[in-house]
Amino acid sequence: LCLLCRLADAIREIRKYDDVTEKVNLQNNPGAVEHFHMKLFRAQRNLYIAGFSLLMSFLLRRLITLISQHATTLASNEAFKKQAEGASDAAKKYMEENDKLKK
After folding, report:
1. What is the C-alpha separation between 60 and 41, in angstroms, rounded?
2. Residue range 11-23: mean pLDDT, rounded
3. Which helix (H) or strand (E) holds 39?
4. How far are the Cα atoms of 21, 58, 68, 69 from residue 65, in angstroms, in the given order?
Protein backbone atom coordinates (compact mmCIF):
# COMPACT_ATOMS: atom_id res chain seq x y z
CA LEU A 1 0.00 0.00 0.00
CA CYS A 2 2.80 2.40 0.84
CA LEU A 3 4.53 1.67 -2.46
CA LEU A 4 1.37 2.51 -4.37
CA CYS A 5 1.11 5.80 -2.49
CA ARG A 6 4.71 6.65 -3.33
CA LEU A 7 4.17 5.75 -6.97
CA ALA A 8 1.06 7.93 -7.16
CA ASP A 9 2.89 10.77 -5.43
CA ALA A 10 5.79 10.52 -7.89
CA ILE A 11 3.37 10.67 -10.83
CA ARG A 12 1.67 13.69 -9.30
CA GLU A 13 5.02 15.43 -8.80
CA ILE A 14 6.06 14.76 -12.40
CA ARG A 15 2.82 16.24 -13.70
CA LYS A 16 3.18 19.24 -11.40
CA TYR A 17 6.71 20.12 -12.48
CA ASP A 18 6.15 19.22 -16.13
CA ASP A 19 3.25 21.68 -16.37
CA VAL A 20 5.16 24.50 -14.65
CA THR A 21 7.72 24.81 -17.44
CA GLU A 22 4.92 25.21 -20.00
CA LYS A 23 2.67 27.61 -18.04
CA VAL A 24 5.24 29.96 -16.49
CA ASN A 25 7.68 32.09 -18.47
CA LEU A 26 11.07 31.40 -16.90
CA GLN A 27 13.23 33.04 -19.55
CA ASN A 28 14.11 35.99 -17.29
CA ASN A 29 15.47 33.81 -14.50
CA PRO A 30 17.76 30.99 -15.69
CA GLY A 31 18.28 29.76 -12.12
CA ALA A 32 14.57 29.05 -11.86
CA VAL A 33 14.70 26.93 -15.02
CA GLU A 34 17.50 24.82 -13.54
CA HIS A 35 15.59 24.57 -10.27
CA PHE A 36 12.46 23.27 -11.99
CA HIS A 37 14.50 20.83 -14.08
CA MET A 38 16.11 19.58 -10.87
CA LYS A 39 12.69 19.09 -9.28
CA LEU A 40 11.44 17.28 -12.39
CA PHE A 41 14.51 15.02 -12.39
CA ARG A 42 13.94 14.14 -8.73
CA ALA A 43 10.28 13.39 -9.38
CA GLN A 44 11.21 11.11 -12.31
CA ARG A 45 13.87 9.40 -10.22
CA ASN A 46 11.32 8.78 -7.45
CA LEU A 47 8.91 7.34 -10.02
CA TYR A 48 11.50 4.87 -11.26
CA ILE A 49 12.49 3.86 -7.73
CA ALA A 50 8.88 3.40 -6.61
CA GLY A 51 7.99 1.44 -9.75
CA PHE A 52 11.00 -0.83 -9.40
CA SER A 53 10.24 -1.39 -5.71
CA LEU A 54 6.63 -2.26 -6.49
CA LEU A 55 7.73 -4.72 -9.17
CA MET A 56 10.26 -6.33 -6.83
CA SER A 57 7.66 -6.68 -4.07
CA PHE A 58 5.34 -8.54 -6.48
CA LEU A 59 8.18 -10.79 -7.64
CA LEU A 60 9.33 -11.56 -4.10
CA ARG A 61 5.78 -12.35 -2.99
CA ARG A 62 5.38 -14.75 -5.92
CA LEU A 63 8.76 -16.36 -5.21
CA ILE A 64 7.85 -16.91 -1.56
CA THR A 65 4.53 -18.45 -2.61
CA LEU A 66 6.26 -20.84 -5.02
CA ILE A 67 8.87 -21.87 -2.45
CA SER A 68 6.14 -22.52 0.12
CA GLN A 69 4.13 -24.62 -2.35
CA HIS A 70 7.26 -26.58 -3.26
CA ALA A 71 8.02 -27.32 0.39
CA THR A 72 4.43 -28.47 0.98
CA THR A 73 4.59 -30.74 -2.07
CA LEU A 74 7.87 -32.28 -0.93
CA ALA A 75 6.47 -32.95 2.54
CA SER A 76 3.32 -34.57 1.15
CA ASN A 77 5.40 -36.70 -1.24
CA GLU A 78 7.47 -38.00 1.67
CA ALA A 79 4.30 -38.80 3.62
CA PHE A 80 2.79 -40.67 0.65
CA LYS A 81 6.02 -42.60 0.15
CA LYS A 82 6.12 -43.69 3.80
CA GLN A 83 2.45 -44.63 3.66
CA ALA A 84 3.00 -46.73 0.53
CA GLU A 85 6.02 -48.46 2.08
CA GLY A 86 3.98 -49.24 5.20
CA ALA A 87 1.14 -50.65 3.12
CA SER A 88 3.59 -52.73 1.10
CA ASP A 89 5.22 -54.13 4.25
CA ALA A 90 1.81 -54.94 5.72
CA ALA A 91 0.75 -56.71 2.51
CA LYS A 92 3.95 -58.79 2.50
CA LYS A 93 3.42 -59.70 6.14
CA TYR A 94 -0.18 -60.81 5.53
CA MET A 95 0.85 -62.81 2.46
CA GLU A 96 3.57 -64.62 4.46
CA GLU A 97 1.10 -65.37 7.25
CA ASN A 98 -1.41 -66.61 4.71
CA ASP A 99 1.22 -68.91 3.15
CA LYS A 100 2.07 -70.33 6.60
CA LEU A 101 -1.60 -71.03 7.32
CA LYS A 102 -2.05 -72.90 4.05
CA LYS A 103 0.83 -75.29 4.78
Report:
1. 28
2. 76
3. helix 30-102
4. 46, 11, 5, 6
**Cβ neighbour number for residue 42 with a 10 Å cutoff:** 14
* Average pLDDT of the segment spanning 52-57: 93
CA dist 52 and 10 (Å) reads 13
Contact 50, 12 (CB under 8 A): no
Neighbours of 43 (CB within 10 A): 19
pTM (two decimals): 0.66
What average pLDDT is seen over the chain?
Answer: 86
Average pLDDT over residues 8-35: 76
Is residue 10 within 8 A of residue 43, CB to CB? The reply is yes
* C-alpha distances in Å from residue 89, one per residue of 81, 85, 96: 12, 6, 11
Contact 43, 8 (CB under 8 A): no
Q: Which pLDDT value is given to residue 64?
A: 97
Amino acid at 53: S
